[in-house]
Amino acid sequence: MRILLMGNPNVGKSVVFSRLTGVNVIASNYPGTTVEFAKGSMRIGAEKAELIDVPGTYTLEPTSRAEEVAVDMLKEGDVVINVVDATNLERNLYLTLELLQRKIPMVVALNLWDETRHTGIAIDVEELEELLGVPVVPTTAVTGEGIKELVSRFPEARKGSHEAEDEDLWHRIGEIVGRVQKLTHRHHSLLERFGDASVRPGTGIPIALLVLYLTFKIIRFVGEGLIGYLFEPLFENFWKPLMMKVSLLLGSTGFVHDILIGKLVDGDIDFVESLGLLTTGLFVPIAMVLPYVFSFYLILGFLEDSGYLPRLAVLVDNIMHRLGLHGLAIIPMLLGIGCNVPGALATRVLETRRERFIAATLMAIAIPCMAQLAMIIGLVGKTGAKGLGLVFGTLFVVWVALGLLLNRVVKGESPEIFVEIPSYRIPYWNASAKKLWMRIRSFITEAVPFVLVGVFAVNIFYALGIIEFVGKIAAPVITGMLGLPKEAVGALIIGFLRKDVAIGMLAPLGLNLSQLVVASVVLAMYFPCVATFAIMAKELGAKDMLKSAGIMVASALLVGSLLNLIL
Amino acid sequence: MSGNGRIVLAAMQTGQTGKVVQIQGGRGMIGRLEVLGIRIGRELRKVSSQFMRGPVVLEVGNTQIAVGFGMASKILVEVTE
Q: Distance between CA A190 and CA A196 in Å, rounded?
């Protein structure tokens, strides 16, 4: 049996899904968090059923790519759990009635039930059940309230008793709401006032600046703190002595030694420069990148779950329009800072092909992922703030300039922003911690192996003389145009696999500040890593991916050469 | 802006409330607004607007929605307060 979880965007379907299946999926407080369906299995009595978390939709007549996915899924389901936002009954019932018209067996979960209490909404659940003709269960998925009852009433799923024609759906909804819902007048809560203040320019812009400032401060504070007080001491004091013994045991040199431990620098292991699997291969992802990935997702999770992001989207809408996008495009950009892969997927919140092309291209070129950022901060940051300012300043200028350009030349339409602004919610500690853990776990299980492959590949490429060979061929570009030593070509080759390893490979080259800046900027821009490339190719299609890649290579060479001339 | 207190959403003052009287758009636009609760006869409140023809945030029932300036210029309301 196949069960579909369906409902309006941002009503908590993904939380219900996690509760029912035990499979964790990312849930946030903005419409369109789920752009692709997730599958899991659950037990109903003795039977095993497949549960699918469908992207949110307001209607069965789709208006965006994510909604199309939702409607397509409907054909393949046997039963629907319609998740309804109890605080927005009227709007949510439209989809409910559309689903009932499709004559598919259904159960309704009246979610966000806890919020009805303090918003002065009273709903007569029995009456609603009677009118719809299907089981209706109040739930608060984030705390788990009502989930058991939802499961226990599952066998009662049925087709319902709704007969209204399309034209009088709203009329019918009006009747239902009038009979089951009572509103008590109440004053605006503090959170609601803050909600209004954060979308008004006079108050909203200062709030946004403060939020961004705090975001950067906290990310750096937590990231640097973890590195300086936890990971670096651990590696230096415990791991290094152990690895030195292994190194001795292996004879301090030779092929196997160099693969596992790497080259010794002045008779000692250098965790960045040695390039062994057990040294650099572990130190880079765990001691340099992970702390920043952790601190970034800690803050991003809070921004997502509080409901701030759509408000930020409203404030930046004007700017984004000049780049051929609208405010919501800030979401893929922000997610891209964590990792470009979810960033590329999140371009689905945008309605048209043109917007998705521009957003994905801009992100892949000008938004370095956290792994790369952490390495740039570690490497370029050592020389002071100037280098970092140059790298990030250049990328920002590229982001804006390229956006302005693409907005002129890319054909197609860019519609206006049209999005629901969810109420502010105080994030549930549990749910946020779980999400943070999921992201950390996927970094450890997906990124770390890639780093190891990257480090291994570096060794093999060096041993086979591939890097030297390509270096000679590419010398006119690398040395002539970019002003880098020809050994830097190794970083460009490995950059296809992992950008963090690539940046790390610059460390032993003894680059000066302007060369470091050029190399960091070029590595960020020239091509996405293989994981991002695969997702982008899938999202954009082969032809657009080719165009996008062309833009990447061309702009990286142009910007790199210009920087080389200026600096 | 026509007579008897009818103005477009874009022209409303922040904090003003009004009743939707007409939506000057195609079926697609009317449909998209409808499913979010913006229909003729509904009471709405303008929450905010931005500089330079930026998006408008409005509130219908318990829902807040951001719409572009263009769309906000096609929703005609009768100001009530």
A: 10
Sign of the C-alpha dihedral computed for residues A232, A237, A239 and A245 taken in this order: positive
Mean pLDDT, rounded, for A209-214:
95
Instruction: Say if the Cβ atoms of B62 and A201 lie within 8 Å.
Output: no
pLDDT band at A65 (very low <50, low <70, confident <90, very high): low
User: Alpha carbon A502 to chain centroid distance?
Assistant: 22
CB A314 within 8 A of CB A402: no
Global pTM?
0.89
CA distance, residue B48 to nearest chain A CA (Å): 5
As a whole number of angstroms, the distance between CA A108 and CA A124 comes to: 14
Which residues, 6 or more positions from A48, have their beta carbon under 8 angstroms from its beta carbon?
A41, A42
Residues in chain A: 567
Residue A151 has pLDDT above 80, yes or no: yes
| pLDDT digit string, tens, across residues A335-350 | 999 999 889 988 988 8
H/E element holding A566? helix A542-566
Partner-chain contact B57 A88, CB within 8 Å: no
Tell me, what DSSP letter sits at residue B26?
-
- Using the beta-carbon criterion (under 8 Å), do A318 and B66 form an inter-chain contact? no
**A:189-218 residues touching chain B, CB 8 A cutoff:** 195-196, 199-201, 204
Measure the CA–CA gap between B12 and A527, rounded to whole angstroms.
47
To which H or E segment does residue A209 belong?
A: helix A201-226
Between chains, do A90 and B39 touch, taking CB under 8 Å as contact?
Answer: no
* B6-8 vs B75-79, strand pairing mode: antiparallel
Q: Is the CB of A200 less than 8 angstroms away from the CB of B28?
A: no
Q: Please, what is the Cα angle at A531 between A526 and A534, to 5 degrees?
A: 90
Please check whether residue B40 touches A, CB under 8 A.
Answer: no
B19: phi then psi, degrees, rounded to nearest 5 = -105, 135
Nearest by CB to A91, which of B37, B55, B69? B37
CA angle B49, B55, B57 (to 5 degrees): 60
Q: What is the rounded radius of gyration, in angstroms, for the C-alpha atoms of chain A? A: 26
Closest by CA position to A81, among listed A178, A171, A12: A12
Residues A495-510 pLDDT 10s? 988 899 999 999 888 8
Are B54 and A415 in contact (CB < 8 Å)? no
What is the ipTM, given to two decimal places?
A: 0.92
HSE-CB at A32 with a 13 A cutoff on CA atoms is 25
Tokens 């636009």 belong to: B29
**CA A536 to each of CA A36, A233, A528: distance values in angstroms, whole numbers, following the listed order:** 14, 38, 9
**Mutation target vs B (from A318, A322, A330; most B CBs, 10 A cutoff):** A318
CA distance A472 to A488: 11
Chain A residues within an 8 Å CB radius of B69: 416
Asked if residues B55 and A327 have their Cβ atoms less than 8 Å apart, the reply is yes
B15: tokens are 């904090």
**Residue from the list A91, A119, A170 with its beta carbon closest to the beta carbon of B36:** A91
Instruction: Report the DSSP pairing between strands B63-67 and A418-421.
Output: antiparallel
What strands, in cross-sheet order, belong to the sheet with A47-53? A38-44, A47-53, A2-7, A79-85, A106-111, A136-138
